[in-house]
Amino acid sequence: AQSVTQLDSHVSVSEGTPVLLRCNYSSSYSPSLFWYVQHPNKGLQLLLKYTSAATLVKGINGFEAEFKKSETSFHLTKPSAHMSDAAEYFCVVLGNSGNTGKLIFGQGTTLQVKP
Amino acid sequence: EAGVAQSPRYKIIEKRQSVAFWCNPISGHATLYWYQQILGQGPKLLIQFQNNGVVDDSQLPKDRFSAERLKGVDSTLKIQPAKLEDSAVYLCASAGWREETQYFGPGTRLLVL
User: Fold this and answer.
1) Which residues contact B83 (CB under 8 A, 6 or more apart)?
2) How many CA atoms within 13 Å lie on the side-chain side of A30?
3) B43/A44 touch (CB, cutoff 8 Å), yes or no
4) Does B25 touch chain A (CB under 8 A)?
5) What is the 3-state secondary structure (H, E, C) of chain A?
6) What is the C-alpha to C-alpha distance for residues B113 and B91, in angstroms, rounded to an integer?
């Protein structure tokens, strides 16, 4: 069965410093992986997705993630944090092989950005 | 392009009452999902529709939850009777035919007292 584990429940950074949100996955086949962001009282927004093309995936708002099969990781990074990045971030794996299927979410990482 | 619409945004009910949530997916999207997000957790799939047919409802508590998508467009999720542990945000998402990316609505926040 597919699953994801987000290694930090809470990450705090200063504005202008790098962001690293860690995610490990478990999958019996080549997974489709996503990062979603959820701002307070707003819906989930897709940041980026990996679907077995390039291992370094660039997303919106300067975020990127690298798929490392040997480490079963899909960590999310950003070179310089902005106050508006404060939100809940979810690492997600597609539950079924092939096309549409359920998304399996990690527990989430709360990103705090300090001025 | 209009996004996924959900209503109401907030609902407060007492336990044992009934409640219904409505979702209108992105136009043309064949697949519709309902997720439950309990505070402090990631969303969990309740039910997946492909057009008006159910693809996966294995995690839906069928003794109290029901959902329908009669015309393959909008959908209704009902809870009857509600329990305290049903307090959560109910998220609707949709995806195009054979598309992996799901687009989420703003959610309905339910509080059961």
Assistant:
1) B15, B64, B112
2) 8
3) yes
4) no
5) CCEEEECCCEEEEECCCCEEECEEEECCCCCCEEEEEECCCCCEEEEEEECCCCCEEECHHHCEEEEECCCCEEEEEECCCCHHHCEEEEEEEECCCCCCCCEEECCCEEEEEEC
6) 20
Chain segment A26-69, per-residue pLDDT in tens:
987 778 899 999 998 788 999 999 987 788 999 999 999 999 99
Distance between CA atoms of residues B35 and B37, nearest Å:
6
Per-residue model confidence as pLDDT tens digits over B19-55:
999 999 999 999 999 999 999 899 999 999 998 899 8
Q: Name the residue with tokens 């990450």.
A: A11
User: In terms of CA atoms, which chain B residue is nearest residue A42?
Assistant: B106
CA distance A109 to B46: 22
* Cross-chain residue pair B48–A94, CB shorter than 8 Å: no
Chain B hits for A42, Cβ within 8 Å: 106
**In the prediction, which pLDDT does B1 show?**
64
CB B28: neighbour CB atoms within 10 A?
A: 10
